[in-house]
Amino acid sequence: MTTQRLRAEWRACFRFILSPHLKRTLRVAPPLAGRLRDWFPGLGMGRLFAWAATLWILNIFVLGPLVLEAFEASGATHRINVNDLPWLQAILWAPLVEELLFRYCLRRPLSLFWVTPSMGVVLVYGLQSWASVLLALTVALLLFISYFSAEPRAWVFRWGRRYHKVFPWVFHLVALAFAAVHLRNYVFGDVQWWVMMILVTPQWLTGLVLGWIRVQRGVGASILLHGLFNAGPLCVAWVALQYAE
């Protein structure tokens, strides 16, 4: 039964990517009301792990050979030092910052005017103390607003109907922007732009799935899946280093 449900979710995700919409088609019954339910995952760790494994398989066996060939042809180098793996940054900091930056606004479009700029600053300046304070204040304010959120006014519904019409464009532009940001993981020489974009096709695919999870399950689920997905390559690198030693 679980496998059948997972296959149904795969199909639902594929249909959503082809035709993005804001209607929640998955049955979610979190023990929270109002906007706070947006932060509750609404699915177990087993399902999250299954989705992470799906992304690992697609990125390694489908996109992996293409990315590896482009990486070797470009002469690029990766910024991550395998001898100093960024566990905290990859598993906790990056999922929280990037989900708020790119995907929180998918269901909360007005947050584009304040959450997105603040998280953009945090992303640029990294783990500096003042940027971490800004991140904590933003999350605290979002939770406060979610807890005390009132019924939206009439103008919000009118604006929302217009947003529904452009949402497919917004969804795919966000996925492309998410992929493009990960170009900063590499150091490039003289390389053509299309080769650079091939290098971040795994992030593009992952961004599409995370966007679907965010819209259907909430930002809490996309943050958890993002962190779990990032943990996979780090664990592989760590195990490889232990055997190398």
Automatic annotation (TrEMBL):
Domain CAAX prenyl protease 2/Lysostaphin resistance protein A-like: 87-231
GO molecular function term, any single one: endopeptidase activity
Record has Protease as a keyword: yes
Coiled coil: none
Spans traversing the lipid bilayer: 48-71, 133-150, 166-187, 193-213, 220-241
A Gene Ontology biological process term: CAAX-box protein maturation
Protein's name in the database: CAAX prenyl protease-like protein
Source organism of the structure: Jezberella montanilacus
Lineage of origin: Bacteria, Pseudomonadati, Pseudomonadota, Betaproteobacteria, Burkholderiales
